[in-house]
Amino acid sequence: MRVEFLSRSADETRAIGRQLAPALRVGDVLFLHGDLGAGKTTFAQGIAAGLGIVGPVQSPTFTLVNEYDGPVRLYHLDLYRLSGADDIAGLGYEEYLEPSDGITVVEWPERAGSMLPETYLLVTLVAGAGIRHRLIFDPVGDDEAASRWNRALTSDCKG
Ligand SMILES: Nc1ncnc2c1ncn2[C@@H]1O[C@H](COP(=O)(O)OP(=O)(O)OP(=O)(O)O)[C@@H](O)[C@H]1O
Ligand SMILES: [Mg+2]
User: Fold this and answer.
1) Which of 37, 71, 83, 96 would disulfide-bridge 52, Cβ 3.0–4.6 Å?
2) CA–CA separation, 59 and 41 (whole Å)
3) What are the residues whose beta carbons fall under 8 Å from the beta carbon of 31, sequence distance 6 or more?
4) Which residues form the domain of 11?
């Protein structure tokens, strides 16, 4: 089931991430699709905050991956600058698609071509006019994970 939000500020986008975070489990993978400036990193900041990770979460644009330790480990990847198959292999991308000890969030996953985990939460972010951004959630794969994510997204602690 698709869940859609309209966000009117970066803080609102972070709040949606914070709302989803408690429903995330070790092994979960999120793909963030959207143009430059669509709000992917902003959303990832909300996830990190919701996971109890303290400290600034910045786009890992130049390092491809940032790792955050907290109550739950977060792997934050940004593949925008990925240059090809060598980079993917060097990064060990496949392991991030089946994280055994944390949660993986990937910006620009399409840069890695068709490498997909079986189950993941596809998040599409679209910047509209001004500060209006849309966030669209499409769970792919396992039904248990999909309903776990959807329950968190549709519970009304956030408007
Ligand atoms: N409703 C909103 N949701 C998210 N970001 C917003 C919103 N309104 C304004 N912004 C601003 O838009 C920018 C989004 O930048 P962000 O780095 O999150 O995008 P991104 O998708 O990660 O881009 P990139 O592809 O370059 O990594 C931020 O400066 C943020 O403050
Ligand atoms: Mg970013």
Assistant:
1) 71
2) 6
3) 106, 109, 120, 121, 122, 123
4) 3-154
Residue 133 CA to ligand 2 center (angstroms) comes to 14
The pTM assigned to this predicted structure is 0.96
Which residue, chain included where needed, has tokens 């055994």? Answer: 100
Query: Is residue 159 assigned to a domain?
Result: no
> Which CATH number goes with the domain that contains 39?
3.40.50.300
Please count the structural domains in the chain.
1
Whole-angstrom distance, CA of residue 35 vs CA of residue 82: 16
Ligand 1: residue of 41, 63, 80, 158 to mutate (most ligand atoms within 8 A of CB) is: 41
Q: Is residue 72 part of a domain?
A: yes
